[in-house]
Design brief:
alpha/beta, two-stranded parallel ribbon, 8 strands, elongated
Length: 171
């Protein structure tokens, strides 16, 4: 509780502790409960884009349950639903450059990638809003993700990205 003393606004970013099932959700629950006990006024939570119950993305259940816990608490809250990190492409790009082949199961799938820095800047802006304490709880979906028609982000397919790499093709 001492870590939360005097905190009015809190940014909750889930850990990447996914090797132990339920661990990340337990950590998020602990933060939310401590926030309530210590009088935090507003929690900004970085969730996942398209957080839907039927999602095949392994992290989605933890994010959905964290969103539910926030909604059920007496805290003010804002959920930032961010898209996939551009940095997640680095290992695949490194292998593609070394081998000339980019192996993926994405097919024609596309994403509007964001950087962690983009997400951090968006979260900082939300936390700094002067009227955050009086804001209605809710979700911010279009702040840091979306389609090119919505906000100008370019949807990127693996095939399109591979064309930027010398002598690389997608398998």
């Amino acid at each position: 509780n001492a870590a939360f003393a005097g905190v009015r606004r809190l940014l909750l970013v889930s850990t990447d502790d996914v090797m132990e099932p339920g661990r990340r959700l337990e950590q998020n629950r602990n933060v939310i409960e401590a926030s309530v006990r210590c009088g935090v006024e507003h929690v900004v939570y970085t969730s996942i884009s398209q957080a839907l119950p039927d999602s095949v993305v392994a992290a989605t259940p933890d994010h959905l349950e964290t969103e539910r816990m926030l909604a059920a608490s007496r805290l003010g809250w804002t959920v930032l639903r961010k898209n996939i990190y551009a940095e997640s492409l680095l290992p695949a790009l490194t292998r593609a450059l070394a081998t000339g082949q980019w192996r993926t199961a994405a097919g024609e799938g596309a994403a509007a990638y964001v950087t962690r820095e983009d997400c951090a800047q968006a979260a900082a802006k939300v936390l700094a809003l002067p009227n955050l304490a009086s804001a209605k709880p809710g979700f911010v979906d279009r702040l840091i993700h979306g389609t090119s028609a919505e906000n100008g982000h370019t949807l990127v397919t693996f095939e399109r990205a591979a064309k930027k790499l010398p002598a690389t093709h997608v398998l």
